[in-house]
Write a structure and sequence with these properties.
Blueprint lengths: L1 E7 L2 E6 L10 E8 L3 H8 L9 E2 L4 E8 L11 E4 L9 H4 L27 E3 L2 H4 L1 E2 L6 H4 L2 H14 L8 E4 L3 H12 L5 E4 L3 H10 L3 E3 L6 H8 L5 E6 L6 H8 E9 L24 E4 L6 H12 L9 E6 L4 H10 L6 E5 L3
Parallel strand pairs: 9-10, 9-12, 10-11, 12-13, 13-14, 15-16
Antiparallel strand pairs: 1-2, 1-4, 3-5, 3-7, 3-16, 5-6, 6-8
Helix pairs in contact: 5-6, 5-10, 6-7, 8-9
């Protein structure tokens, strides 16, 4: 089979590999829709997780089951499925402690394109299929469905971890697809005022459709100060970091009110340390807490997110600004994600309708 791989830091290319073997609890899946991610860009061109050689990229997919192991009960060849970006080892100690995304070590639930071949291939392997696959609802568009495995799960996690009080105020820093999903998640969870920080017109338009009440632009002055001024000097009840460089943490801490949670859903792909503003953090005593997490995976998570889409709580297809067709176009879509033209939110590749 062929796949689009990271050949080494800074270089991608198509390679041939043997089709994956599956164990008794696993599945072999072919993609029907794919989406490249900023994480792929960090991995290849930023070297964020170190050198990788001939590792097939990609972790956002919808697929069709081709083969299952003899212990798989709930899926069969021909089933169309949502494949989460994070496929934990269910039964691990981390999962039993309530942190399945960290199974096998820090970020260990992130297998695709981290330490095993990803989904940008003619076929890919899914571990523990009964726990890590979900049926794709009939009638759901592929453009909407392919946002579920990572963008919705990560953005909604940012909102969930932020401990947003009913009617509380929230600032979402960065309104790419993860940030837009965080805006939608905050609205669904009952936030009152939602500040969306960004400048791209199409992202601003979608943010408003998802529930943003205020748009903040860095072009109009210091981001945190604008939010503080708009809240009569108080700051917001919750901050969700969904993009930006290390210095975005400075804005997050300075915009947060006492008693707030600063929830990070951003992948910091470079640098050795992250800054915290000493005064804004009350010299370590400002009652401003940090929450972190890795995109939740697993079957139940995918089914619940699919219900949010099915029952029209939000339409993730609004983020699919560039749609390609055919596996060969994955390379073009990934390079588009790397270059990030101003009209881009998220590219999607349809393999099979």
């Amino acid at each position: 089979m062929k796949g689009l791989a990271m050949l080494k830091i800074g270089e991608i290319g198509w390679i041939e590999k043997d089709k994956p073997d599956i164990g008794p609890m696993d599945a072999l899946v072919k993609p029907i829709a794919l989406a490249p991610c900023t994480s792929d860009v960090h991995t290849v061109w930023g070297g964020a997780i170190g050198e990788r050689h001939n590792l097939i990229l990609g972790h956002e997919a919808l697929g069709e089951v081709v083969e299952v192991g003899d212990m798989v009960k709930d899926f069969k060849p021909g089933d169309r499925v949502i494949v989460p970006a994070i496929t934990p080892d269910w039964g691990s100690s981390a999962e039993q402690k309530g942190f399945p995304s960290q199974s096998g070590g820090p970020l260990g639930g992130w297998k695709f394109s981290n330490f095993k071949d990803g989904v940008f291939a003619e076929l890919f392997h899914v571990n523990q299929a009964d726990y890590n696959l979900a049926l794709l609802p009939k009638g759901m568009s592929l453009e909407a469905g392919v946002m579920i495995p990572d963008m919705l799960s990560t953005g909604f996690m940012g909102a969930e971890n932020a401990n947003i009080p009913m009617g509380g105020s929230v600032a979402v820093l960065g309104i790419g697809p993860v940030g837009l999903s965080a805006v939608a998640g905050a609205a669904i969870l009952g936030a009152g005022r939602i500040f969306a920080v960004g400048t791209r017109p199409n992202c601003i338009d979608v943010a408003k459709k998802y529930g943003a009440t205020d748009i903040i632009s860095y072009k109009d002055g210091d981001t945190a100060q604008q939010i503080v001024d708009a809240t009569d000097g108080e700051g917001v009840d919750a901050v969700i970091i969904a993009g930006g460089s290390q210095n975005i943490i400075l804005d997050a801490v300075n915009a947060a009110a006492a008693g707030s949670v600063i929830s990070n859903a951003n992948y910091f792909g470079e640098g050795e340390t992250l800054p915290i503003p000493r005064a804004g953090w009350g010299f370590g005593m400002a009652d401003k807490d940090f929450a972190t997490g890795l995109c939740p995976g697993g079957r139940v998570r995918m089914e619940r997110l699919a219900d949010i889409v099915t029952y029209n709580r939000m339409d993730p297809a609004l983020m699919a600004t560039h749609v390609f067709h055919g596996l060969d176009s994955v390379e073009e879509a990934l390079l588009l994600m790397k270059d990030k033209p101003r009209d881009l939110i998220k590219p999607v590749v349809i393999i099979e309708e």
